[in-house]
């Protein structure tokens, strides 16, 4: 009798628990991370696969879902995945970067419990350690609105993840060796669309229907332009913000950024090129995929349509035109513009300048002159268990102009502070800045040196709230 009573007792507890709070749904993932041979540019190379796939599987979720992701590391090196854009409001211990999370040792597994709390939108995950990203291990994350929350456009006929990025034939260990030898990354060998080379992927559409494309730049360092032959794209969402539905014939996607566009199959029923090309580079790298009309018997032909190449102002103007639709709902039914960020007083200003240089003969990158070195234990854990071992303020909150040195840099801000951050880029490539676990409003983007007067030009009304911003080359800066 005893086991039966026990079972009933447990059942009752569960029932009561359910009737008090309707718990948010759980989604379980069991992932095996392995090396495997891939041929994205026609030559065999060692890629990082998840459950045998390159790119890895998409994570499909709905606002507030709990994601339980058990990751088995079958590589010969420690491994971590970071959930780019997921805010981890309840548990930043699983952010999956050096500062917060212990790497999964080779041959072991670890389970990540995340909740996509109060979020919608298009994001992606990627390996955050040891240049693994150059070998794969990335995939899409989508967070759909809950059924009763209005979305500012009709349901698309289908929804496609499109991961674009520059790619090297060299493996991640060889690329690391180049940096450790004091040199910068070479020019990439190509661009991949969903892990494939030219015309390696086909997206099928039906004449007259509208589709959502979720485009993320998962590459290492190149800004890319995305376009579809003969078709216009309507931008609808940027990293969790529903945008003004502006129509573009091509879109710049900087490293780490995610965009959702709608595209209607309203052209001749043949196959059309989807084109991705590098921005601000000479030469220009270009690759293609295929938009296939289901009734088409005509393959793509001729040269793919050209796009912007080195024009910086074009890109800047496009970025400025991307704004929040203040009357559309986000994860909740209240309009996205009901929180007036522009009326909140800034309580702290931080200026961050990126730089590149050599440290002990190795190529390193720095923020306000500090090149970050991880400690053996994640800072988040040292802090939580009050162990110490790092110093808050070990990086200045504005550029010092000094040479690069190594430290475990930790910048302090106070709880509930409203912070203005100015990014400065004196390098000759576009830099992407990602604030892990947070979104920020991109209030200004301009050339020249930032001054107090730059604040007069801030967009304090309908800037987009996002997690990754590009900062243009040489003396151009952004503020968030
Ligand atoms: C992961 O894949 C490798 C290679 O196929 C296999 O040896 C290993 O048993 C798998 N691990 C799990 C947990 O499935
Ligand atoms: C490792 O995976 C096994 C099942 O595959 C699971 O039972 C166990 O909880 C996992 N361990 C961790 C630490 O996630
Ligand atoms: C903004 O969102 C509203 C509400 O969903 C929608 O009706 C409107 O068309 C959108 N406006 C633009 C310019 O995207
Ligand atoms: C990368 O390629 C080099 C040869 O170029 C090889 O020695 C090394 O083992 C490879 N590393 C991995 C992780 O595949
Ligand atoms: C912002 O600061 C001004 C001047 O100090 C003050 O009058 C105002 O109430 C503050 N606004 C908010 C929202 O705190």
From TrEMBL:
Give every Plastocyanin-like domain span: 32-146, 159-295, 395-474
UniProt keywords, alphabetically: Glycoprotein, Signal
MF term (GO), any? copper ion binding
Record InterPro entries: Cu-oxidase-like_N, Cu-oxidase_2nd, Cu-oxidase_C, Cu-oxidase_fam, Cupredoxin, CuRO_1_AAO-like
**Domain of life of the source:** Eukaryota
Please tell me whether the keyword Glycoprotein is annotated for this protein: yes
Could you tell me which Pfam families the record lists for this protein?
Answer: Cu-oxidase (PF00394), Cu-oxidase_2 (PF07731), Cu-oxidase_3 (PF07732)
| Signal peptide positions on this chain | 1-22
Q: Does the keyword Aminoacyl-tRNA synthetase apply?
A: no
Q: Which family does it belong to?
A: Belongs to the multicopper oxidase family.
Q: Please identify the protein, giving its name as recorded.
A: Pectinesterase
Where does this protein come from, organism-wise?
Solanum tuberosum (Potato)
Identify the gene encoding this protein: LOC102588101
